[in-house]
Structures are given as structure tokens and as C-alpha cells.
Fold this protein.
Amino acid sequence: MITVIVVAFVLLIVIVSTFYLVSRRGRSSLTASGSAVLEKTREEGAAETIHKSQEAISELAPPADIRKGLSRARLSFSRLLGTMLGGTSSDQVLWDSLEETLLLSDLGLELTTKVIEGSRKELEMAGTIDGSAMASAIRMQLRNLFVDADRELEYSEEKPTVWLVVGVNGVGKTTSIGKLSAMVAAEGKRVVLAAADTFRAAAADQLEMWAQRTGADIVRSVPGADPSSVVYDSIQKAAARGYDMVIADTAGRLHTKSNLMDELRKLRRTAEREPAHLTEVLLVLDATTGQNGLVQAREFAKAAGITGLILTKLDGSAKGGIALAAEWELGVPIKLVGVGEKANDLILFSPDEFLDALLETADDA
Amino acid sequence: MFDNLTDRFEEIFSRIRGKGRLSEAEVDSVLREIRAALIEADVNVGVVRTFIERVRENTVGEELQRSLSPAQHVIKAVNAELTNALGGENLKITYASRPPTIVLMAGLQGVGKTTAAAKLALWFRHQGRNPLLVGADLQRPAAVEQLRVLGGQAHVPVFSVEGDPVKTAVSGVEEARRIGRDVVIVDTAGRLSIDEELMAEVSRISDSISPNYTFLVVDAMIGQDAVNTAREFNEALTLDGIILTKLDGDARGGAALSVRHVVGKPITFVSTGEKLADFDLFYPDRMANRILGMGDVLTLIEQAERTLDKEVTEKGAKRLKGGKFDLEDFLEQMQQVKKMGPLKGVLSMLPGVPKEIRNADINEKELVKVEAIISSMTRAERANPDIIEGSRRLRIAKGSGTTTAAVGTLLKQFKDMQKMMRSMGMGGPSPTKKSPNRANHKKKKRR
Ligand SMILES: Nc1nc2c(ncn2[C@@H]2O[C@H](COP(=O)(O)OP(=O)(O)OP(=O)(O)O)[C@@H](O)[C@H]2O)c(=O)[nH]1
Ligand SMILES: [Mg+2]
């Protein structure tokens, strides 16, 4: 008995104190550099006139439609709205099934409660009880969760623009970069892809195939090489050849690994050093992700100062409500939605189109 | 970070603690908290409903009314129910009498199938088998290349041919037979459960190789959709087990419960890290704690921050690093760590604690003994246990109400631990930092 206890305690003490110190150190530097990053982003945004070529992009916007991504979510909402229109707001069953529908979309308990209470209050004030007023109150509440932010992808006035794509393992970073590469190439921009995922086996090969498909250049290194140096080399190459932009792929990393998050900080610093102009740090969230997505968004925002979200795999049966929760909490807009594995399966996101598609009833559709 | 369930209960329980019985309203409020915790842990809403009903049935009954601490009773009931719902009979891997044993891996895109396939191959190798990996993901760019690299790291051969995934799988099995490998693991492309064409393809693969085991690979971070995915894959393939990946993150992993619930098949393996060896059989009790928010490192850190005295902990850590950690420090730190709660609970939150210790039945009363023994030592003895000989040993045993054998065991264990700490790089000054000054100082103290 004593044996076990001594071993257990010493282990405990060693591990607990290590965790404790690491977490304390980690946290303070995290907040410091996190706010520095945010500060810097703000300043730069003001100092530089950032040129946007949204028109060009939407002109070449891929044929995919947000409806392609929402077929499943629409089904559950339209069923709900169907019953709602025939009912009244005094019907508790309707509110319960609304709660269930929202929770099943991975919106999370907090926002679900917020939407429901907000709608209830609004209806009480208006004194209405009919189902269609209920439906529009809900739509309004959902609309209010989206931040009032610019959703256009930003380019810098001077070349090269740099976009950094980050996220946990397997969410669709590399594929999204392939799609982005196709998108900007269609605009006549010349791109170099930076294969800064030097960790995962064959990650650079995967990106290289996307580079070939989309006519982009690529900079890659050996497995295990310093990712920052790959980004650096890409920027040098872009500057030397007069390319318009660099899109950097990064290794998937769990936000709980502090060494990897530090690596990301370093990557960001490299990506914003002259002659580069870092205008986007895009966090990729997988639509199947549950409540952990919020923690991911928080941690990546702290480490890399994200400017936008890409919600992928919306073509599946998952509804992706976690992206909305992340947008609401962090004030960082969803900019793009992935709805398939092909180069043109990437959509520019618009909250109104999204809600239209989501909430149109069976007969509108 | 979400509040953990323990915190939430704390509030409710402070209200109801000491009460002989819980009113229905009080039970309701506890169950509401449990529901919230489960939903935040990504357990499917429908599954949560069933679960709560079952807990309610078990807690409102006679037994609750009779129990001394109803609150504890509720927690226990929830934990037991959860462990039960996650567990049940475990999948025992048996091998085909006519090799090879065929394993098929399936799942959504990006869940970690390829890595899990390689990890499973390594696991089979450690069981004394000779696996072959078959790359039938011909969809994602460079997927086969990735499998080849991982196979190389696991020292397991990899087979693949371009073209059709069904044919690749079939020739993979033939290849295994030809070169005498006794296990074949077939990696397939990620696919959406609503993609009829690709679901038909994977069931064609299954039909043509008749796998002995079909595993659904599920990402621990998956949300409410886990049930749909699991149901569809189960219909197309008839699953034998689940592999849960990315458990090294901080996702609660409520999907484990959802999937177990709809498929009715056990979670078989968990993948807990980036290294190929980070792969283990599944333990339902650990998962139950994690889902309830009672078993993760972040909780532990938060708890440590809340309860530990910063200065004392830092001092202890410094002494550990400096190789000066003696019984005095041990006592002091032990009292600190004890504040964090029952030893077993704290241990269960730590990753990487050896199974023997995690599963050992730790009697908290024994702790008191350890404390008493150390307290009965003089300062000099604590600093330098080597001086504790026969007569001192007897005095300490008497003083602490234990035996000399117990004192001896404690001393020996502590010494071994010091050695271990040193080898872990915790206990001794690192060579680069070693200064003559420090070494002298250490010697002086020893004398
Ligand atoms: N159906 C669907 N699949 C997608 C989408 N985006 C990516 N995928 C698939 O998801 C899988 C993982 O995508 P990757 O691009 O390799 O993900 P990653 O984040 O780069 O992964 P790591 O680098 O390993 O962390 C691939 O099979 C992709 O084809 C999407 O919008 N819809
Ligand atoms: Mg990638």
C-alpha cells in the first residue's frame, strides 16, 4: 500500500507542479502576445489602405450554392417551421422542438437559450402569438448572432499578400487552400503555395497536387523542416518573381499543445515581416465539430490573431452551428464555406443568404 | 473553458447538503445540470434525454430517500450509468483460423483513419502479428503516400494499386495471403454518410473482402451529428467496433456515448497522440469522468491554480529541478496536493499515469500513515534519510504508530522515486546548468 502511495504522490507532485508552472507561464505569455497580435492587426488595418477585389471574386464565384451545403439542416428547420406556422407561440412543444433543433445544429446551450429567450421576450412585448411572427422573431434573433463585419477576403495594396491557414488536424486546411488557390487564380492572380506543414506524412505531396491542379507555384522543404523557414522562402520567392500572393498551409495542431501553438506564433511573425503583407489568418472549422470548436477558435485567436473562419464539410449531415457560436463569441466572421472536395466547392459566406436557405419553408424551396 | 460539472454540482449541493431527502424539484435541478453538462460534452440531445430518464428512475426511488447523502448518491448514479452506457462487453480480438484476419477502416473525412490504420498495425505487431497495410484511399491526394510513410515508421509493409478502391482492397488481401501476412488492415477514403455513391462503394469493398472486423473511426471532437454518421455507416457496413481519435485534445468526447448508444457496439480503441504508439484499448470509466468534465488535464490545472499555494508549489518545483527534493519537501507538497481532493480522483485526471497505479485501490487512510511517518522524523532525517538506522527507525515507527517495516518501505520507495525523477530529468541539475557552486552546496548539505 505504502509503495503505491509514495509512487503515486511523487508522480503527482512532479506532474502537477510541471503542469502548473507550464500553464502559468503559458497563460501569461499567451495573453500578452495575443493582445499584441490583435493590437498590431488593428494598427495595420488603419495604417494601410487595404485593397479589396471582392467584385472580381464574386464574379468568378464558383457555381456551388449554399443550398448544396444546407440540404440536411434545411430539412430539420423546415419541418419545424412547418409545424410552427400552424401553431402559436404559447405552445411549449414548439419551443422545445426549436431548442432541440438548435442544439442538434451544434449551436451550443448558451446561444440556443439566448435565441429562445430573445424570441420569447420579443413576442411578449409585441403581444403576438401566431406562428409566423414566431418564425420571424427567431430569424431575427439568429441574424443578430452574426457580427456586423466585413466578410470579404483582403488583399494588400503592395505585393505579396500573405494568407495563413490554420486549424486542428483533419479539418480541411489543405483542401481549402487548394480551393482558395483556384479562386484567386481565376482572378488572374499569381500564387505561390507554402507547404509549411512539414510534420504530417505526405502533406507537401498533397499540397503539390493542388498546386498542379490550380496552376500555382509551390515552395516545399524536407519533412521536419522549420515551417517558418518555408513561409519565409515562399515570401522571398513571391517577391523575387513578382507573384501577387502567398497562401501558407500549416500542420494541423491541437490547440492544447502549447509548443505547437508557440510555433504558430512564430509562423505569424514570419508571415508579417517585410516584404510580406499578412492580411488574412483563416481558421478552418469542420462542420462536424461540436462544442470543442469554440475552444479551438478561442485558442487559435489568442495564438495567431485570426481574421476569418472557413467552415468546411457543410455538404455532410452536420449543420456547423459551432461556427456561428465562434463568430458570435470572438467577433470574427465566417468568410467561406466548403461544400465538397472539388476545387470549386468553396462559397463566399453571407448570413442573409444562409438564413434564407436555412429557413425557407418546404413550399418556398 | 466550460464550467466543469463538479463546480456546477458544488452550487446545487451546497443548497441541499445535509438534507435527509431531496424533493422532486431538487432532483430536477440536479438533472438539469447533468443534462447541460452532457450537451456541452456533445452527447446527442436525443441520447441525453434517454439517459436522464434512466438516471431519474434510479434516483427518485427508495434508495435515494434512505441514503445519507442524496447528492453523492446522484453523482454516483450518473457516473455508474455513464460507465455502464459506455462499457458493456468489450470487443475481444480473435484471429481468423485461416489467415489473414481482415480489418476494414471507415469513417468521415479528416477523422484520422490513415493514422489510426498505421497505429492499429503497430498494435497488432506488438501482439506478435505480421500485418499488411492496404491503401484503398485513392481519393484524397497523397493519402497512399501518407500511409507508406507511416507504414515505414511502424515497420509494416504497405500495399496499394492505382485505379479502383474495391479492386485494390481485394488484391491487398490476396497479396497478404501470398506473402504470408496474418492481418490485413484496409484504409479507405473518408466519405460523408449521406453520399450514397461512396457509401455504396465502401459496402462493395466490404462485400468483396468480407472483413473480420470493421471499425468506424470517429473524431472525439465530433458534435451532434455523430449519431447520424454512426447510424448510416452501421447500416452500410455492420460495424464491429469504434476507434475514437484525437483524445489528446480537450474535447469532452460525448460522441463516444452517442455512438455507443446508436450502434450498440463498443468503443474498442482510442488514439491519444501524434506518435504511432499513442494508441490504447478503451476504458469506459475514464471516458465517463471525462464526459462529465471530471477528468481532464485542464480541469486539473484549474483546480491546481485554485487550490495550490503558488509559492509552496513553485518552491517545490524549484527543488525538484535542483535535485534537492527531500522528505521535507515531499511532506509539504503532499499536503498541498491533498487539498486538490482524493488522490484517486486527481490521479484519474492525469494522462500517462501507469495503469497499475491508476487502477490500484488507494486507501486514503494510508495517506495519514505516510504523513505520520514523515512527521515523526527530525528535520535532519528528512533532509538526509540515509542517516535513519535501526534505532532511529524504531523511534519513528513508534512515534507514528506504524512498524519499522513500514518506515523501511517508505524510505526505499522514496529513494527509488528520487532516482526515477533524476532519470526523468526532473530530479537532478542538468549538466549545462551544473555549477561548481551548486555542487558544493549540495555536498555541504549532505554532510
Ligand atoms: N465533403 C467534404 N470534404 C472535405 C471538405 N474539405 C475538406 N474535405 C476532406 O477532408 C479531408 C481532410 O482534408 P485536408 O485538407 O487534408 O485537411 P487538413 O486540415 O489539411 O488535414 P491535416 O493537414 O492532416 O491536419 C480530405 O479527405 C478532404 O477531401 C468539404 O468541404 N467537404
Ligand atoms: Mg493538411
